[in-house]
Amino acid sequence: MEWNFLTAEKLAAALRAGEVTSAELTDEAIARIERDDKAINAICVPDFDRARAAARDADQARARGEDRPLLGIPVTVKESYNIAGLPTTWGMPPHRNYLPAEDAVQVSRLRAAGAVVLGKTNVPMGLQDIQSFNEIHGTTNNPWDHGRTPGGSSGGSAAALASGFGALSIGSDIAGSLRTPAHFCGIYAHKPTLGLVANRGMVPPTAPALPTELDLAVVGPMARTARDLTLLLDVMAGPDPLTLGVAHDVTLPPARHERLRDFRVLVLDDHPLIPTGSAVRAGVHRVADALADGGARVERHSPLLPDLSEAAVLYTQLLFSGFSGSFPLEAYERLRTLAAGLGADDRSLDAALLRGMAFSHRDWIEADSRRQLHRHGWRRLFAEFDAVVCPITPTPAFPHDHNPDLRERRIDIDGVEYPYLDQLVWAGLATMPGLPATAVPAGRSPAGLPVGVQLIGPMYEDRTPLRLAELLEQKIGGFQAPK
Description:
two-stranded antiparallel ribbon; 11-stranded mixed beta sheet; Amidase signature (AS) enzymes
């Protein structure tokens, strides 16, 4: 039997029933990687010897009567997570030989749940791109079209899942880094509520692995089905024990509804700052039609929706203010001079980016206060709706573009070019207020490329968009393996 594309849920059932061993699953996954990954380049740091040993241990544990959520299931891990004995480089050449001393907290949780880690997946340099390439490990290709990117920064994980290299993966997201690769590769991903999932050990090379509270950034699960996302989120969720001194168990509220016809959904397909490409718009409409056909209440407009333009500017400022905090003082002062020269009427996202990088602490406090008003707006909206359906980016996967200056790159939307970084506005819609968002497949473009949408849910109610994702999967289908 071909096991590589089965869900984690089905693999767990087969392992429990004795239909297959973890050693067999792991050997088959490794054989597939060795056969197919030369063309994809998703697995940048294989760990096959330790994976085989972990699989043997899992089989012995099961023979003793043990059962854990992921016992014996092969998985991958984004390169940016520390794994003891393997390099963590974030694609940065000066750190190509850096070896962390201990596992990231999420790697520890995977192992405690019984998962077999096959290796690490590729990323862009510093995790700072919507693609996945770097000087150390090269370029990861989209399994649907090798001339296109799988997305970033969790692009290696998405490409691995779409290629059948393991049943699950873990990634991270500050600018769509879980959701965009899922959209580009036709898989599922979930950006958890901000702070729900401990992030210790998902740090740049040589940085201490401390239990910090990040602004905007989260870590989260990737899978080939919605139910597998929930399975993996349950393993990952919970505070860092170093912070609270307690176990990581956490109880999330149940999904608001179990049936499609009970959901109240707001559907968005237009953004005031960037057009939505026809292929993505069609995916949004496909989901909206399926919801309506299933009896859900579907609305296209609401006065309760926070202002999308202001949200995009605020997100851009907060995002890039975080990046500039580590710049040398001289570079920061140059940015302040450039920002001071901007016209007061320049409300472009490029101007917001520059102003954000030049933020003072006072500026950040003011922006954070405006963020709290947006959070309050979302709370009011989610009193009337259960989820918001919207794009993840304006287009399907685009061709590789390795221009080192991201501000010089352009994104082609139905034949018209727009600034490359402007495509982040949809990802930022959920990121800025810290809301959970589930990326789901929504069909394919006329060119045969995957198209996804995101389901944004209420804060700390992650199970609501996850359940809606599961119901949509039953209604319109989900992951399909590339030919």
